[in-house]
Amino acid sequence: MRAELGWAVAEQGRAVSETAAHYGASWPIVHAAFVEHVRVPLAAALPPVKVLGIDETRRGKPVWARDPDTNRWVLACDRWHTGFVDAAGTGGLLAQVEGRTSAATIAWLNAQPESWRAEITHVSIDLSASYAKAVREALPDAVLVADRFHLVALANDMLTQVRQRVIRESCGRRGRKTDPAWAARRRLLTGHERLRPETFATMWNSLIDTGDAGIQILQAYTVKEELRALLALAGTNPQRRLIRARLDSFYQHAAATDAPEAHRLAATIEAWWPAIEAGILTGYSNDQGSHCTSSCCSGWWCGTCPLSGPVFLMLPRGSDIAGVARIRSCFVLGRGRR
Prior knowledge:
The chain is α/β, with parallel strands linked by helices. The protein is 48% helix and 11% strand. It folds into three domains: 2-37; 51-147 and 285-318, Nucleotidyltransferase, domain 5 (2-Layer Sandwich); 148-282. The chain is built from 15 helices and seven strands. The relative contact order is 0.17.
């Protein structure tokens, strides 16, 4: 019976709570059966990885505890975890460790065999100075790749900041549903190719009609779309002259606007350009696995991850299996939590 319970959770992708309800067993019994089922896979060596993906995921609220020596409150459990994924292979989660500092990242990388680390040619990260420092120290021969998802998210944040600032400056208040800029807030963040022509025309004309405020928002929108056009070259084996042409177009549009938010975005792109260019030339990113760090199964290598809820394995493969019992929310390709 226990073997069947463990198999249902680990192999069928069913949540512990769902399995417990189906078989009429308690949550602890099903969880213990799952721990026993994954004992051997968790103790197995890491698979060869060519492109390593590193990304952060939020794990609920931080946990504080009182230090018995100093009687001061200290952080016992960080709300941020760092996930390591096979970005170019299965996209599966290799490990998830507590913290998102360079020290935590370096510690896990240095704990892996030197032969395994030597096979890593590229590392895909978000625009995190901590992760970049960790990669330079622990994997000095690997090429840094800036993840495209985070770059687009950065551009969308820039556009949102411009829209909010313009409304505050022009209206002296926050946006309301009667404001054209506020009404178009979702469309502004949508890719141009995904908007119907009539929808785009309505959005564009409504903002033009508001005067300088709307024009500044549309300039920021154009900067965002220029960056997306540049990143769209990834995976197409583009010629360097085409990359340079789209990069220059992005810089020109960013320089043409008075929005300081767009200028900061351009400065960020310039600072991270070697890693961004590497992503465009190679096509590598975390789109397969990085977001598996926030919704993946506890230690299994999985090609896809259909969940939206967090799964947290605080131990890398090869660690003491007893640590699995400390998992607070157990998702294994399932849809529920304890």
